[in-house]
Specification:
Layout (H helix, E strand, L loop, with lengths): L3 H5 L3 E6 L24 H5 L5 E4 L5 H4 L4 H9 L6 E5 L2 H6 L8 H11 L1 H5 L3 E7 L9 H9 L11 E5 L8 H10 L2 E2 L1 E3 L18 E6 L16 H5 L2 H8 L4 E6 L6 H12 L6 H15 L3 H8 L1
Helix pairs in contact: 12-13, 13-14
Protein backbone atom coordinates (compact mmCIF):
# COMPACT_ATOMS: atom_id res chain seq x y z
CA UNK A 1 0.00 0.00 0.00
CA UNK A 2 1.34 3.46 -0.93
CA UNK A 3 1.63 5.83 2.02
CA UNK A 4 0.24 9.35 1.91
CA UNK A 5 3.81 10.65 2.17
CA UNK A 6 4.84 8.73 -0.94
CA UNK A 7 1.76 9.92 -2.79
CA UNK A 8 2.85 13.51 -2.18
CA UNK A 9 6.45 12.88 -3.23
CA UNK A 10 7.36 14.79 -6.42
CA UNK A 11 7.93 12.31 -9.24
CA UNK A 12 11.44 11.45 -10.38
CA UNK A 13 11.46 10.15 -13.95
CA UNK A 14 14.66 8.48 -15.20
CA UNK A 15 15.32 7.40 -18.76
CA UNK A 16 17.68 7.62 -21.72
CA UNK A 17 18.25 10.14 -24.49
CA UNK A 18 16.92 8.17 -27.42
CA UNK A 19 16.04 4.50 -27.77
CA UNK A 20 16.27 3.64 -31.46
CA UNK A 21 19.87 2.45 -31.68
CA UNK A 22 19.69 -0.56 -33.93
CA UNK A 23 23.30 -1.65 -34.39
CA UNK A 24 25.26 -3.88 -32.05
CA UNK A 25 27.47 -2.38 -29.32
CA UNK A 26 30.67 -2.42 -31.38
CA UNK A 27 28.93 0.05 -33.72
CA UNK A 28 27.42 2.06 -30.88
CA UNK A 29 24.01 0.40 -30.95
CA UNK A 30 21.86 -1.37 -28.37
CA UNK A 31 20.99 -4.61 -30.16
CA UNK A 32 22.01 -7.61 -28.04
CA UNK A 33 23.09 -5.28 -25.21
CA UNK A 34 19.53 -4.22 -24.38
CA UNK A 35 17.34 -5.28 -27.30
CA UNK A 36 17.23 -9.05 -27.88
CA UNK A 37 17.79 -8.58 -31.62
CA UNK A 38 17.54 -6.04 -34.42
CA UNK A 39 13.89 -6.92 -35.04
CA UNK A 40 12.71 -5.97 -31.54
CA UNK A 41 10.10 -3.20 -31.43
CA UNK A 42 12.30 -0.53 -29.88
CA UNK A 43 10.03 1.85 -27.98
CA UNK A 44 7.66 -0.90 -26.89
CA UNK A 45 10.54 -2.87 -25.37
CA UNK A 46 12.19 0.23 -23.88
CA UNK A 47 8.98 1.32 -22.12
CA UNK A 48 8.95 -1.90 -20.09
CA UNK A 49 11.99 -0.59 -18.20
CA UNK A 50 11.64 3.20 -18.13
CA UNK A 51 8.80 5.67 -17.64
CA UNK A 52 10.26 8.33 -19.90
CA UNK A 53 12.54 8.88 -22.88
CA UNK A 54 14.10 11.90 -24.48
CA UNK A 55 13.51 12.04 -28.23
CA UNK A 56 16.59 13.52 -29.91
CA UNK A 57 15.84 12.53 -33.50
CA UNK A 58 13.46 15.49 -33.87
CA UNK A 59 16.52 17.74 -33.66
CA UNK A 60 18.01 16.42 -36.91
CA UNK A 61 16.23 17.69 -39.99
CA UNK A 62 17.05 14.54 -41.96
CA UNK A 63 14.79 12.63 -39.55
CA UNK A 64 12.36 15.33 -38.46
CA UNK A 65 11.41 16.28 -42.02
CA UNK A 66 10.07 12.75 -42.55
CA UNK A 67 7.98 12.73 -39.38
CA UNK A 68 4.23 13.37 -39.33
CA UNK A 69 1.60 13.47 -36.62
CA UNK A 70 1.20 9.78 -37.34
CA UNK A 71 4.74 9.22 -36.06
CA UNK A 72 3.73 10.53 -32.66
CA UNK A 73 0.35 8.82 -32.64
CA UNK A 74 2.22 5.55 -33.09
CA UNK A 75 4.48 6.40 -30.13
CA UNK A 76 1.49 7.00 -27.88
CA UNK A 77 -0.04 3.66 -28.84
CA UNK A 78 3.20 1.74 -28.29
CA UNK A 79 3.79 2.93 -24.72
CA UNK A 80 2.03 2.55 -21.33
CA UNK A 81 -0.51 5.09 -20.14
CA UNK A 82 1.80 7.15 -17.90
CA UNK A 83 4.84 7.11 -20.18
CA UNK A 84 6.36 10.49 -21.11
CA UNK A 85 8.43 11.67 -24.07
CA UNK A 86 10.55 14.78 -23.75
CA UNK A 87 11.21 16.10 -27.25
CA UNK A 88 14.14 18.15 -28.54
CA UNK A 89 13.37 21.21 -30.68
CA UNK A 90 14.62 20.98 -34.31
CA UNK A 91 18.05 22.31 -35.22
CA UNK A 92 16.40 24.64 -37.73
CA UNK A 93 15.10 26.69 -34.81
CA UNK A 94 18.10 26.61 -32.47
CA UNK A 95 21.17 26.21 -34.68
CA UNK A 96 20.20 27.64 -38.06
CA UNK A 97 17.80 30.44 -37.12
CA UNK A 98 19.33 30.76 -33.63
CA UNK A 99 15.94 31.57 -32.03
CA UNK A 100 15.67 34.69 -34.20
CA UNK A 101 11.98 35.54 -34.45
CA UNK A 102 12.73 37.80 -37.43
CA UNK A 103 13.88 34.71 -39.32
CA UNK A 104 10.73 32.73 -38.54
CA UNK A 105 11.90 30.77 -35.50
CA UNK A 106 8.52 31.07 -33.78
CA UNK A 107 6.65 29.93 -36.89
CA UNK A 108 8.86 26.85 -37.02
CA UNK A 109 8.26 26.22 -33.32
CA UNK A 110 4.50 26.42 -33.78
CA UNK A 111 4.73 23.87 -36.61
CA UNK A 112 6.84 21.63 -34.36
CA UNK A 113 4.33 21.85 -31.50
CA UNK A 114 1.52 21.04 -33.88
CA UNK A 115 3.38 18.00 -35.22
CA UNK A 116 4.02 16.56 -31.76
CA UNK A 117 0.51 17.47 -30.55
CA UNK A 118 -0.60 13.80 -30.34
CA UNK A 119 1.77 13.44 -27.39
CA UNK A 120 0.16 16.39 -25.65
CA UNK A 121 -3.34 15.10 -26.36
CA UNK A 122 -2.45 11.71 -24.89
CA UNK A 123 -0.82 13.29 -21.80
CA UNK A 124 2.50 11.78 -22.85
CA UNK A 125 4.46 14.96 -23.53
CA UNK A 126 7.19 15.52 -20.99
CA UNK A 127 9.35 18.60 -21.56
CA UNK A 128 10.23 20.46 -24.75
CA UNK A 129 14.03 20.68 -24.82
CA UNK A 130 15.66 23.73 -26.39
CA UNK A 131 19.37 22.93 -26.71
CA UNK A 132 21.42 25.95 -27.76
CA UNK A 133 24.50 25.62 -29.98
CA UNK A 134 27.94 26.03 -28.32
CA UNK A 135 28.40 29.24 -30.32
CA UNK A 136 25.27 30.77 -28.78
CA UNK A 137 26.74 33.04 -26.10
CA UNK A 138 25.43 35.51 -23.54
CA UNK A 139 25.82 38.14 -26.27
CA UNK A 140 22.75 36.53 -27.84
CA UNK A 141 20.70 37.31 -24.74
CA UNK A 142 18.32 39.57 -26.64
CA UNK A 143 17.57 36.81 -29.18
CA UNK A 144 16.59 34.32 -26.53
CA UNK A 145 14.59 36.85 -24.54
CA UNK A 146 12.51 37.87 -27.58
CA UNK A 147 12.00 34.20 -28.46
CA UNK A 148 10.80 33.26 -24.98
CA UNK A 149 8.49 36.23 -24.92
CA UNK A 150 6.70 34.78 -27.95
CA UNK A 151 6.42 31.18 -26.79
CA UNK A 152 2.94 29.77 -27.39
CA UNK A 153 2.69 28.98 -23.70
CA UNK A 154 0.21 31.47 -22.32
CA UNK A 155 -2.96 29.39 -22.15
CA UNK A 156 -3.14 28.11 -18.55
CA UNK A 157 -5.01 25.01 -19.72
CA UNK A 158 -2.48 24.17 -22.41
CA UNK A 159 0.92 24.94 -20.94
CA UNK A 160 4.10 23.13 -21.87
CA UNK A 161 7.11 22.29 -19.74
CA UNK A 162 10.07 23.86 -21.52
CA UNK A 163 13.76 23.46 -20.70
CA UNK A 164 16.79 25.28 -22.09
CA UNK A 165 20.32 23.88 -22.22
CA UNK A 166 23.14 26.42 -22.35
CA UNK A 167 26.39 25.14 -23.87
CA UNK A 168 28.76 28.09 -23.55
CA UNK A 169 30.49 29.17 -20.31
CA UNK A 170 29.56 32.84 -20.86
CA UNK A 171 26.07 32.02 -19.51
CA UNK A 172 27.57 31.65 -16.03
CA UNK A 173 25.93 34.80 -14.72
CA UNK A 174 22.74 35.66 -12.84
CA UNK A 175 20.83 37.17 -15.76
CA UNK A 176 19.90 33.93 -17.56
CA UNK A 177 18.54 32.27 -14.42
CA UNK A 178 16.36 35.25 -13.58
CA UNK A 179 15.06 35.30 -17.15
CA UNK A 180 14.13 31.62 -17.06
CA UNK A 181 12.39 32.03 -13.70
CA UNK A 182 10.24 34.74 -15.24
CA UNK A 183 8.99 32.31 -17.90
CA UNK A 184 8.94 29.19 -15.67
CA UNK A 185 11.46 27.47 -17.94
CA UNK A 186 13.87 24.91 -16.52
CA UNK A 187 17.59 25.49 -16.85
CA UNK A 188 18.95 22.13 -17.95
CA UNK A 189 21.44 20.78 -15.42
CA UNK A 190 24.17 18.70 -17.05
CA UNK A 191 27.09 16.41 -16.39
CA UNK A 192 29.71 16.97 -19.09
CA UNK A 193 33.48 16.60 -19.64
CA UNK A 194 35.51 19.01 -17.50
CA UNK A 195 37.36 20.41 -20.52
CA UNK A 196 34.10 21.91 -21.83
CA UNK A 197 34.08 24.41 -18.92
CA UNK A 198 30.40 23.76 -18.24
CA UNK A 199 30.81 22.75 -14.61
CA UNK A 200 28.46 25.55 -13.56
CA UNK A 201 25.64 23.64 -15.28
CA UNK A 202 26.05 20.77 -12.83
CA UNK A 203 25.05 23.03 -9.95
CA UNK A 204 21.42 22.89 -8.89
CA UNK A 205 19.92 26.03 -10.39
CA UNK A 206 16.16 25.82 -10.01
CA UNK A 207 14.34 28.18 -12.37
CA UNK A 208 10.93 26.52 -12.76
CA UNK A 209 8.43 24.24 -11.07
CA UNK A 210 9.93 21.36 -13.05
CA UNK A 211 13.54 20.38 -13.62
CA UNK A 212 15.69 18.55 -16.18
CA UNK A 213 19.06 16.79 -15.88
CA UNK A 214 21.13 15.37 -18.73
CA UNK A 215 24.11 13.05 -18.21
CA UNK A 216 26.18 13.50 -21.36
CA UNK A 217 29.16 11.34 -20.40
CA UNK A 218 32.70 12.51 -19.72
CA UNK A 219 34.72 11.13 -22.60
CA UNK A 220 37.44 13.52 -23.80
CA UNK A 221 38.32 11.55 -26.92
CA UNK A 222 37.28 13.72 -29.83
CA UNK A 223 33.83 15.20 -29.24
CA UNK A 224 32.10 11.94 -28.41
CA UNK A 225 31.15 12.71 -24.81
CA UNK A 226 28.53 9.99 -24.92
CA UNK A 227 30.94 7.04 -25.30
CA UNK A 228 31.37 6.81 -21.54
CA UNK A 229 30.19 4.56 -18.73
CA UNK A 230 29.75 6.32 -15.38
CA UNK A 231 30.99 4.50 -12.30
CA UNK A 232 28.66 4.15 -9.35
CA UNK A 233 30.91 6.48 -7.38
CA UNK A 234 30.45 9.17 -10.02
CA UNK A 235 26.69 8.73 -9.94
CA UNK A 236 26.57 8.80 -6.14
CA UNK A 237 27.82 12.39 -6.13
CA UNK A 238 24.50 13.35 -7.72
CA UNK A 239 22.18 11.73 -5.18
CA UNK A 240 22.03 14.61 -2.68
CA UNK A 241 21.62 17.06 -5.54
CA UNK A 242 18.74 15.09 -7.01
CA UNK A 243 17.00 14.89 -3.63
CA UNK A 244 17.39 18.65 -3.23
CA UNK A 245 15.86 19.34 -6.65
CA UNK A 246 12.99 16.90 -6.07
CA UNK A 247 12.00 18.84 -2.97
CA UNK A 248 11.79 22.08 -4.92
CA UNK A 249 9.95 20.98 -8.07
CA UNK A 250 6.81 19.04 -8.98
CA UNK A 251 8.70 16.75 -11.37
CA UNK A 252 12.36 16.03 -12.11
CA UNK A 253 13.24 14.39 -15.40
CA UNK A 254 16.68 12.75 -15.69
CA UNK A 255 18.09 11.46 -18.98
CA UNK A 256 21.30 9.60 -19.74
CA UNK A 257 22.77 10.70 -23.06
CA UNK A 258 25.86 8.45 -22.85
CA UNK A 259 24.07 6.19 -25.28
CA UNK A 260 27.02 4.68 -27.18
CA UNK A 261 26.94 0.89 -27.00
CA UNK A 262 24.05 0.84 -24.55
CA UNK A 263 25.96 2.48 -21.69
CA UNK A 264 23.02 4.78 -20.95
CA UNK A 265 20.84 1.76 -20.17
CA UNK A 266 23.28 0.53 -17.53
CA UNK A 267 23.67 3.91 -15.85
CA UNK A 268 19.96 4.77 -16.00
CA UNK A 269 19.00 1.47 -14.35
CA UNK A 270 21.76 1.89 -11.77
CA UNK A 271 20.60 5.42 -11.02
CA UNK A 272 17.02 4.24 -10.61
CA UNK A 273 18.16 1.77 -7.99
CA UNK A 274 20.41 4.34 -6.26
CA UNK A 275 17.52 6.80 -5.92
CA UNK A 276 15.47 4.37 -3.84
CA UNK A 277 13.47 2.87 -6.67
CA UNK A 278 13.93 -0.89 -6.26
CA UNK A 279 14.44 -2.57 -9.61
CA UNK A 280 11.96 -5.17 -10.75
CA UNK A 281 13.19 -8.65 -11.58
CA UNK A 282 12.91 -7.76 -15.28
CA UNK A 283 14.96 -4.58 -14.83
CA UNK A 284 17.59 -6.39 -12.77
CA UNK A 285 18.02 -9.06 -15.41
CA UNK A 286 18.39 -6.40 -18.11
CA UNK A 287 21.02 -4.56 -16.06
CA UNK A 288 23.00 -7.70 -15.30
CA UNK A 289 22.85 -8.79 -18.94
CA UNK A 290 24.03 -5.39 -20.25
CA UNK A 291 26.91 -5.22 -17.75
CA UNK A 292 28.00 -8.74 -18.63
CA UNK A 293 27.65 -8.15 -22.38
CA UNK A 294 29.76 -4.99 -22.36
CA UNK A 295 32.35 -6.48 -20.01
CA UNK A 296 33.17 -9.11 -22.64
CA UNK A 297 34.59 -6.44 -24.89
CA UNK A 298 36.62 -4.46 -22.37
CA UNK A 299 38.19 -5.33 -19.06
CA UNK A 300 38.14 -1.65 -18.07
CA UNK A 301 34.39 -1.46 -18.69
CA UNK A 302 33.93 -4.61 -16.64
CA UNK A 303 35.72 -3.07 -13.70
CA UNK A 304 33.69 0.14 -13.89
CA UNK A 305 30.39 -1.71 -14.22
CA UNK A 306 31.08 -3.79 -11.13
CA UNK A 307 32.04 -0.87 -8.88
Amino acid sequence: MISKANQRRPPLLIGCSGWNYGDTSDKGGWAEVFYPDKETKRVRHYSQFFETAEMDSTFYNRFYSKMTKGTFIGMTKATPEKFQFSVKVPETITHQKRLDIDKGAITDLEEFIDKISPLKSANKLGAILIQLPPSFTVNDFRNIERFLDRLPNTDKNNKFDCAIEFRHPSWKTEGPWEMLKQYNIAAVITDSPAKENLQFLSDAVITADHSFIRFHGRSTKGHYWYNYLYSKQELETWIDKVNQIKNQTRVLRVYFNNHYGGKAVINALQFKEMTDASLTALEMRALEHAEKYLSKGSNSIAKIAKL
